[in-house]
Write the structure tokens for this entry.
Amino acid sequence: MHTFPRDWPEAGPIDIEIHDRPHASSTTEWWYINSHFSTSTGKHYSLFASFFRVVLARDETTGEPRYGHALAWALIDPARSTYDPICLLDECAPREGLALLEKGEDIHDPKLRRALTEMLEKNALPLPDRLFSGHAEVATNHLDLKYGENTFRRAPSNTYELTLVNAERNLRCRISFSPLKPAVRHGVAGVVRGVAGEGMFYYFFSRCSISGTLSTGDEVETITGGNCWYDHEFGRHQDRPTHVSFKDRAAWNWISIQLENGYEISAYDLFRVDNMEESYGRWVIVIDPDGTTRSFTNFAFKPVANWTSSRTFNDYPTAWSLTIPDAKIRLEATAAFGDQEFITIISKPAFWEGRVEVAGDVDGHDVRGLGIVERTGFYSDIKIDDFVARVGQLTRGTVEDLLPLEPTGADLMTLIGDDSESRYLDGVDPAQYVETVIQPLREIIDRGGKTWRSYALMASIDVVGGDSRDYVHLLAIPEVLHVGSLIVDDVEDESAIRRGGPACHMLHGTATAINAGNAAYFLFQVLFRKTDLSETQLVRIYELYFRAMRAAHTGQAIDIAGLHAIMPAVADTGEAGDIEQRVLAVHRLKSAVAPSCLAQMGAIIAHGDDAQVSAVGYYFEQIGLAFQIIDDVLNLRGFENESKIRGEDIACGKVTMPVAKAMSVLDRDARMALWQAVSGGTDDPQEIASVVDGLEAAGVLDACVKHAHDLVEDGWQRFDPAVPDSHVKLMIREFGWYVLERYY
């Protein structure tokens, strides 16, 4: 049997004067407001705001709590499909974040933990989170919160006053609201379960009048109509007031609905994070127009559509069905627009909370209204491998849009010509075009790939302060170009396998493969037609594109010619500096210049300054080099879940970085033996294993791994000071380590 704190409400009406105040027993408490309103300019908006107070630690002598504070709020403009979020935290947040990490805060991905620790040690937070100035001021004898310029208080007149400021976006909102219906207890007489399954008390006002002003830039708009919703929740975790382990956390779906017929509905579904089949509680409350409440646990609240973020690559539902059979309620809630994702360190990496438009029937009568949906906790344990896989999924979706297997006339016009020359399609058989151009490319692309070059482009837009959401279609460019080059490379190298299946020329013949591969190079311009870039930006981008193409073909030419001519002398003398540089040249030209140029394109799209464009490009160039060196190592140590054969480079007689580096490590006899094995292109598994074991024993492979690490760290030293600390910067840092440590 649970024993609840003495400062929780007793049975009967809630004394708001008392229980709006902070609760001394609570280790977690928040005050939440959302609103839908219209203004004097005829515009419509929604917003939500949460003021948090959390116990961070207790004084070892007195037991007095030390609190942390945070405010998350967002303004939503459905007409323009804009979403302006901001999260403000205490000045102590970086220090306290480090303390939580040291205590075992559950970030399961060790690379993300390292990246976050590195950033917090600089006393920095990842944007879009920011620090509010000064200390939070929280009254204890009445509701009066002051977090920087943001305030929430209850006036003696039973009116609530709210001020919200987003200085970065020049937004300021001043709202007054008053409850129009009595307070409602959620859950079982007000008792629900919290983010760690702990007991919480939860009450809310489902409909409040509203007045005030909204300042957007230099324009001040008066609020002329609308409603507010106000929640207050508080409670404690009995055993772990300052730390919640991952296995105990909860994820949830929550909705508040205000219908035009005077009804309101609040529903939530809580799930245990490490076992989504285990419920932490589910309730729906229906408030009739006269304030009468009805509670139900028999209901269905299900997602029916998805949107994928181009920043976190999380999938979020954007349409929901809510069915409450015993109340004869069936509703559909549809997001005003998909992109209502809130990125913040306090709900790593992000949650979705946004405006939904509601329609359906209540007891056989058609109804409409507005609501807010929150979905959080479902992505708190995403590891970098899952993240990379999601990048690939979204990338392949954009490729499908660019290269549909059943193209329309408009698609063909875009791919083959342009609107000014419609005669280019005269006599073109769409099926034949698909068979000879689109299908060969799609077959390889649809098998999947790491698509990290696409991530480099998107991340580089965001990391210098741009918005990749406006350029999601460009994800297709790096993957299409890369696959085009792979198709041509496979012809030149006479490779039979690509991405776990037959190479393109094995399926379609050499001529079709070469043509399709080359056709991919010219699709670059097709996608950039759909951007709103200036002529200056486009010229810079085209210059980078042709630079990357020249470099890639030069690298391929050198690779085809090979390094066999100089290897006998190198093996004889052990003077390997030149051969290492020549292997690096191939890696740079074939594999590093392209991601470097793509990253620079992203920074140019986002109007990054010259130093940022250079730093972003250099970092991804170093990652490209490191990627290929690690590939050389994995070829000998063995790939996991790959179709490649261990030691394939030895069997093919290829001079890779381990072979080049071995020339300065091994003695002459060992060097000559190694070169004899490589130049002979042995396919004997035992002989290959013997060569690999010899390189391993001599420390050559470890030396290659260190070389790759040094390259990435060198790139980071230029990159780190050039761009602001942000969530995407964390992910870029983590991605660099992923390239180095994949499969280990």
